[in-house]
Amino acid sequence: MNRKAIIAAGIALSFAVSGPIEAQRGRGGQGGAPVTAKAAAPVDLTGYWVSVVTEDWRYRMVTPKKGDYPSIPLNAEGRKLADAWDPARDEASGDQCKSFGAGNIMRVPGNVHVIWEDDNTLRVDTDAGTQTRLFRFTGSPVTSTAPGWQGNSAAQWEIAGGGRGGRGNAQQGGGDLKVVTAGMRAGYLQKNGVPYSANAVVTEYFHRTMESNGDSWLIVTTMIEDPQYLNQQFQRSTHFKRLPDGSTWSPTPCTAR
Amino acid sequence: MRVPVLLLLAMALCAPAFAQIDFSGEWAPRFYEDQPERVPGPELGDYLGLPINDAARMRADTWSASIQTLPEWQCRPHSADYIWRGPSALRISKEVDPVTRQITAFHAEWLRSVDRTVYLDGRTHPEEYAAHSWSGFSTGKWDGDMLTVTVTHLKEGYVRRNGVPRSDLATLTEHWIRHGNWLTVVEIINDPVYLTEPFVRTTDYELDLHQQIPPYPCGIVEEVDRPEGIVPHFLPGTNTSLSEFPAHHDLPAEAAKGGAETMYPKYQSKLRQK
Q1: Type and span of the H or E element at B161
Q2: pLDDT tens digit string along B96-121?
Q3: What pTM did the predictor assign?
Q4: 3-class state of residue B7 by DSSP
Q5: Would the CB atoms of B201 and A239 count as touching at under 8 Å?
């Protein structure tokens, strides 16, 4: 698939998953003026969050050795590429951000800031690698034509109780956020060169919990489909603790090593 | 006429506030995270990312894997908190009230576990002095489409199966989340004895309609000929194998000892200084 075809697929995907906001409200929709994604949000994901690394520590907090990727279902082509990982080559080509793309950025230890870019775009900034993701609810085609590390993300609220025709609504039962991302530059699923291709599609679900001790956790479930380098769908779930403010925000550039 | 009216009224009053997600089915574990820890098993002295205190570290440092060969330990199942991370298939079944048709309980069963019931009928937890068990006592409530489970009355267990303990005073909160054929379970362990902060992890399973959990009869045999009363252990400071893990992976020995600090991204700057 050439680049134009990939972008076209990404745009088509955006349309496919992003129905009109009104249609996402289940029985909550009463007609009248269209409701913005911000107003329709069944859950508040905004704020500062920090990743708490209790899983895959040896693969996230430090850079693992070349060839060390036991948890990732690579196919033969993917293994060949991972085993040839050369961070110096990535640095020389200006590709230090390969492990900071949408396929892996939520696994990179760091702070995450979630804010509304506008009424229909949720923005996610990361201090690790200083990356920005834009989750668009509009259903309109993305204007960017050049694939970037974060690709094009189409967002949709999922209303508890079956928001697409079910009994729930935002005020009653909460919900979660579904994001589908395509049109990314090829990147790494793990810092030591474990690849995903430009054809990969990333589907994510964002949930928020409220604990009795006052803690709140952001749970991100990530599913990656990449027939080029993976022999099956690959899923990971990652957790972030809510912070009171951005006082620990510490932007750092991408690194290849 | 009065009875049907009352019945309908009772059914209407018992209707759930929100739809109930069905978690029942055959779920296969997917080891896309922590595969080395979960399948072959953790290495000795690997406490990375665990918010443990000195008491827990001492227990783990003096633990000997040979304790599993004791007759009293051979058939010991993983506890409710650890079993999610174990290398075992999962079956979840549901109990349904025949009148209201509401789900009143889920049962979770793994290859090497006891039946674990999560009650959804509003019952309260037992008194503090009630018996503790491997599965504990679990009640659930719906948070939208997410099931939040509270677990108390656990016997002592472990948070990592290389001897890192979890006390019988610990409580566990779970959030069950389903998206199509995928199940994600968030676990939050609070342990006033061995943890300085809540310990959180998330685990994923995939629906597998062909899966069958076979019987797992456990018999006790004499695995090691040893004098009666001997409990395998190391005295503090005598287990020289503990240093092998950080050395093998080029990690600072301090990091391998764990502690809440090692969970946070800020710890990376400390790692770079070493």
Answers
A1: none
A2: 999 998 999 999 999 877 789 999 99
A3: 0.90
A4: helix
A5: yes
